[in-house]
Amino acid sequence: MIIVGFAVSPLAASVGGALALVLNVPTVLAVGALLQVVPVLLLASPVRALRSMPALTAPAAVPPAREGTS
């Protein structure tokens, strides 16, 4: 995961710089600070408690292929 973070850093810096040109710097800093809260909210998510995929209750949207057809 650390490698992915380093790979995204130049992109994030570019987007932050572009936003600072369009908006003002304090607004961009406030948005960045609010985005820092997202991982904390994801830690409180019930998705973390899932240990296996839930069973599909609805029928599949696409029926399975028939054997012998081409």
Descriptive overview:
The protein is mainly alpha-helical and 70 residues long. The protein contains 3 helices and no strands. It has helices spanning 2-22, 25-35, 38-43. Helix 1 packs antiparallel against helix 2. The protein is elongated and about 60 Å long. The mean pLDDT is 77.
Features:
70 residues; mainly alpha
Q: Quick summary of this structure?
A:
This protein has 70 residues and is mainly α.
Report the helical percentage: 40-55%
What is the ordering of alpha helices and beta strands?
A: HHH
Overall mean confidence score, pLDDT: 77
Q: Strand pairing plus helix content: what structural class?
A: mainly alpha
Can you summarize the main beta sheet?
none
Number of strands: 0
Beta fraction of the residues? under 5%
Sequence stretches where pLDDT stays below 50 over 5 or more residues: none
Counted by DSSP, the helix tally is: 3
* Shape descriptor: elongated
**Rg over C-alpha atoms, rounded to the nearest angstrom:** 21 Å
Itemize the secondary structure elements and their pairings:
Elements: H1 2-22, H2 25-35, H3 38-43
Helix pairs in contact: 1-2
